[in-house]
C-alpha cells in the first residue's frame, strides 16, 4: 500500500488474566476499504474491533488511526463509530433523536441538524419512520437506525460488530447488498466482524481470518477461498476434501507431491509450510470435482462409487468412495444434469483440474 | 338428516355445563383461585379499615357515643385550623426532604453496586440490609445516642476541636427526624434503583460513548433516564410512609419535629375525637397521593429536559 493506511495495528496483544485474546496481531487497513474480520466465536475478532473503537485497551502494541496513535484515547474522541451487534438503539428516544444523539455535541443549529439527520435516514431508507420508538421497529429497521446513527457522525472508520447475525436469511442477503452499496456511496473504511464466511466473501475487499487470537491469513475473498494457506482456514471457509501426499521435491516457493489418486503435481508452497515426515496436506474444493456423464472424456479423471447423497435444492452433494483414498471425496454438483438422480451405489467418473489442488499448512 | 338433528338436540343441553367445566379449568380460574386468599386478606385488612376510617371522618363524636349524621365539620377543622395546617405542611416538607436526600444518597450506592459490584454484587446488597436486622425502634434510638448532647457526634467534634461546647441543635428538631428517616429508608431506596440500573443495557452506554459522550454526559443522557422507573419507585417508597411516620418524630423530633401522625394519634387517644383523627388521616392520604403524582411528573419532566 503506497499511501498511509487508515488503520495500522502493530503487534497488539490482549490478555484477560492468563487468557490471550489477541496474540501478536499486526494489520494494515487502507482508506476506503471494506475489510472483514472473520473467525469462529472466541477467535478475538470482536476484541480487535473493540480495541479499534476504544472499548478495550490492548495490553501491548499500538493502534494508529489515520497516522495517529489512539492508545489512551477514549471512544468518544476517536474518529470511529460503531454499529453494535444488538444495535443498541436508545429505547427512550425515537428514531430521529437516536440519529441526532451524537450531533448534539456538535452544537449545530436546529435546521442544520435536522438536515443531517434527514439525509442520514434517507440514506438508509428510513425517512418515513423518524418518529417511531425502538420497540416499534423490526430487526432490519433497527439495524438501519444503528447505521444512520453512526454514519451521520461522518466517521473515518465505521465498525460493524456482526450487524447481520440477528436477521433472517432473506433480509440478511438484502442488507448485504445494501451495506456494500452504502459503503461505495460514503467511501469510508468499513470494518466488519462476522463469523459467516459467505457474508465476508460477498462484502469484503479483503478478509482477515482469525483463529485463537491470531491472524491466520489476510487476502482478497477470492484468494482466501481458492488459496487458503492452512487446513483450518480451508475448512472454515466452506468444505474441502483433504488428503495426505508424499513430498517428492521442494523449492523456496513450490512443492512437488505424489498424491494417492490425483497423480504427481507441483503446487505453490503455502506460507509457514512445515513438512512432517515428508508428507503434505493437499486439498480440493468439492465443486472443483465434476461428474463425467456417459462416455464424456476429461484429461484428468477419477473413478469411484457413490456411497451417500445430500440434496440442497440447486446442488447435490455426492459422497464418492475412491479406491486407494483414505476418505471418500465430497463432490458438489449442480442439479442441471441430474446429479440428484444418481442412485447410491452407482459407479461414477469424476473430472478435475490439477490447478484446483492446493497445498496446505497444518 | 334426521340422525344429524338428533345429535344436535342431544348436544345442546350438555353445552352450558360443559362450558362451565371448561371455565373452572381455565387459566383465569386457577389464577383467581391462587390469588384469592391474598386478595381476601388484602380486602379484609386494607380496604375495610380504610372504609371505616373514611366513614368515621364524616361522623361526630359526642363524648362516648358516635353521632352518625353526615357532616363535613371534621374536614373544615382538619384543613382550616392553623395547627393542623402547620403540621401537615411540616410533615410534607420533611417527607419530601427525606425522599430527595434518601434517593440522592442511595443512587450513587446503587450505581456503584450495579456497575462496579463485580462478582460481589449480592454481598453488597446483603450488607446493605444488615441494619434492617435490628428493630426499627432500636435504630431510631441509636440515632439518639449519636446525636445527643453527650453523644458520639458531639464528643467526636469536641475532641477534634471543631466545636468547643456540645451542639444542642443536633437532636430534638426536624433535622434529627430527617437524618434518622434517611438512614432508616436508605435500603428501601437502594434496592429499586439497583434493579432498574441492572436492567440498563450496557451496550447503550457504550453506544453513547461511541457517539461522543463523556462519562458524565452518557450518564445524564442514557443511564439516568433509563433508571428513572427505579428512582420514581424509590421516591414513592420513601415518601409515602414517611409522611405518616410516628415513631421517629416522637423519639428524636422534640417539639420542633412533631408531624401529623402525632396529631392523629392524639385525636384517637387523649383527644378522644376519632372522627377528627379520621378526617386528618384521610386528608393526609389524599394530599400525599397528589404530592406523589406531582413528584413523579416533575421527575419525568426534568429528564425530558435533560434530553
Number of strands of chain A: 20
CATH topology of the largest domain in chain A: Rossmann fold
Q: Give the class-level CATH name of chain B.
A: Mainly Alpha
Relative strand content of chain B? under 5%
**Silhouette of chain A:** globular
Q: What order do the helices and strands of chain B follow?
A: HHEEHHHHHHHHHHHH
* CA-based gyration radius of chain A: 24 Å
Name of the CATH architecture of chain B: Orthogonal Bundle
Number of helices of chain B: 14
CA-based shape of chain B = globular
Q: Helix- and strand-based class of chain A?
A: alpha+beta
Give me the CATH superfamily of the largest domain in chain A: P-loop containing nucleotide triphosphate hydrolases
The largest beta-sheet of chain A arranges its strands as 6-7-8-3-9-10
What would CATH call the architecture of the largest domain in chain A?
A: 3-Layer(aba) Sandwich
Largest sheet of chain A: 6 strands, mixed
The CATH topology of chain B, please? Answer: MetI-like fold
Provide the helix percentage of chain A: 10-25%
The tally of strands of chain B reads 2
**Domains of chain A, number:** 3
Rounded Rg of chain B: 27 Å
Features:
heterodimer; A: 362 residues; Rossmann fold; OB fold (Dihydrolipoamide Acetyltransferase, E2P); 3 domains; six-stranded mixed beta sheet; 8 helices; globular; B: 307 residues; mainly alpha; MetI-like fold; 2 strands; disordered N terminus
Tell me briefly what this model is:
The complex is a heterodimer of chains A (362) and B (307). With 362 residues, chain A is an alpha+beta fold. Chain A has helices at residues 45-53, 95-100, 110-123, 139-151, 169-186, 197-203, 221-226, 231-236, and strands at 7-16, 19-29, 34-38, 60-65, 68-69, 80-83, 157-161, 189-194, 206-211, 214-219, 241-250, 254-258, 264-268, 279-284, 290-292, 301-311, 315-321, 329-334, 347-351, 358-360.
